[in-house]
Design goal:
Blueprint: E1 2-8, E2 11-17, H1 21-41, H2 47-113, H3 117-190, H4 193-197
Antiparallel strand pairs: 1-2
Helix pairs in contact: 1-2, 1-3, 2-3
Subunit structure: Homodimer. Interacts with FtsZ.
InterPro entries: Bac_CellDiv_Activator, Cell_div_ZapA-like, Cell_div_ZapA-like_sf
Protein name: Cell division protein ZapA
């Protein structure tokens, strides 16, 4: 497990995780940027309030990424169905082409015994047409396979972003608890008579 010391809004925190140090620094940098952005826009906010608003923003980002990821998975599933359909069509055309080639070979053999040139010509045209159709289907299937590969790559990136958002929320939760403790300490220091009255 890695332990990394990071700064968020000028305060040092120790982050623990199985992820690499670069990743933990990246998470902390994201949280730091969110907190500072909120404090710059409203300087009257306390650190704990800024942490809560930052957590809200991060959760909002995570939900949006989750929605994008789900939409992407839907598109990916649809592309896989289309791809499977093209593969089935290709297999059917290959079988049909093999059948036509066998039939053509039989006719060529018969041609040696009789002069049925017209039948052979028709068969050759049919084979040529089927070959062209097979070629078009193969090109289309290859294009869809390439698009599917791109979608899978994007899916991997969405998963990474979703995982990052989850770690950011966990970090903000820790920061919120620490800020609430610090806030309570500050209140006790500012109002020591509250401590005396409870004795």
């Amino acid at each position: 497990m890695n332990i990394v010391t990071v700064k968020i809004n000028g305060i040092e925190y120790n982050l623990k995780g199985d992820e690499r140090e670069e990743y933990l620094h990246k998470v902390a940098g994201y949280v730091d940027k969110k907190v500072k952005n909120i404090l710059e826009n409203n300087r009257k906010l306390s650190t704990s309030s800024a942490a809560i608003l930052s957590a809200v923003n991060v959760v909002d980002d995570m939900f949006k990424k989750q929605k994008e990821y789900e939409e992407f998975i839907g598109k990916l599933n649809q592309m896989e169905k289309v791809q499977n359909s093209y593969v089935e069509q290709m297999e059917a055309l290959k079988k049909q082409l093999n059948h036509m080639e066998q039939y053509n070979a039989e006719l060529q053999l018969k041609l040696k015994n009789n002069s049925s040139n017209q039948q052979v010509e028709q068969l050759q045209q049919s084979v040529k047409k089927l070959t062209e159709e097979l070629k078009i289907t193969q090109e289309t299937a290859q294009r869809h396979m390439k698009e599917n590969s791109v979608l899978k790559s994007e899916n991997k990136e969405f998963k990474f972003q979703l995982q990052s958002a989850k770690y950011k929320i966990i970090d903000l939760q820790h920061k919120l608890v620490e800020n609430q403790i610090n806030l309570a300490k500050e209140k006790k220091q500012k109002h020591p008579f509250l401590n005396d009255s409870t004795k």
